[in-house]
Amino acid sequence: MWCAPIGESKGRGGAARSHWLRKARRSGAMAAAVLSRCGGGGAVLSALLAARRPYSSIFRAAELRVEQSPHPKPKPPPEHLKFGHTFTDHMLTIEWSRSDGWGPPHIRPFQDLCLHPASSALHYAVELFEGMKAFRGADDKIRLFRPELNMARMGRSAQRVCLPPFDPMELLECIRALVRLEQDWVPRSEAASLYIRPTYIGTEPSLGVAPPGRALLFVIMCPVGPYFPGGHFSPVGLLADPEHVRAWPGGAGNCKLGGNYGPTIALQQQAQALGCQQVLWLQGPQRLLTEVGTMNLFIFWHREDGELELVTPPLDGLILPGVIRQSLLEMAREWGEFAVREGPLPMEAVLEALRGGRLKEMFGTGTACVVCPVGGVQYGGQWIPIPTMENGPKLAQRFLRALNDIQYGRTPSDWAQPL
Fold this sequence. Notes:
The protein is an alpha+beta fold. The chain is built from 10 helices and 20 strands.
């Protein structure tokens, strides 16, 4: 188990050491002068000067410390991987405190965290996380997919819960170093990948709803297999219940906070009891479609004027600005084969398009699945089939193939540069 260093609450002994450390920092210059005049005292002088660390407003990848695990674990075959259950040998940790700023980044053996029982992440959900992947291509090179977008979103989430700012590019360099160290954990399979989970939590050891005086940024990783077992592009069924909402105007639905996910589990269980796999989240009197489970939502249809259109809910604060979402929008606009729109999607407009035979495909997008087709919606006490699979689904499969080709290096792209 890894516990935080001297400055945190460790009982009376820890308090005494912390008091000594503060005194040493204040008197470091005086001690150096005295010991210099007295001659010698080199060991004591070195200890005092080491204790005097200036406040650091950022951490730097150049200061990364690496402690390798003496007991590497065996790597499971890709076909036996279960999402989020097997973790790599190492993790990245970076500490922050209001008094000292950022400590140096540290790669250490994967282990439990040691948190004060009053840590603000545990009581007030002062925490956030990200999700990204590393892919090994047929050329044996490892690539991250648009990681700078994850880092930017992580910074916005941190601002929302008053966690201290960090340099996203420095964090990305630390993550790259962690992936390089764990490169044998990146599956040698174009149906699997290494999932990367950056996490940022408040560790303030006191009760009270306030910005934390301590924080911990850490990154863990786990190899994951294909989202669709056996390679089958299987559709999901959705439960749409307007009595429950995921996010609301003025809230934090556009941030990747743990507090946005825990309250959705109960309705997810209800959906599964009704034979559905995910929840279609609705919002407001118009019952606007927002997200599908933890995925962004897309609809491909003929507009009333007959023109083909790809439409997805707008970034109005209700939905997460997904990396795959942004990538599909940019890709579709570059193709220029149909209209592309970010705009509100009332449930009645979707039902009307279904009645008129204008809706072709509905699918979700996200880091885990990339693209996930929708086969039907349970709404208003009835099952409403969605003809996604009957239409190929040509567009959903095309998006999936195009993105996979980039992720695994079959199509060269700035979106997925080799490490």
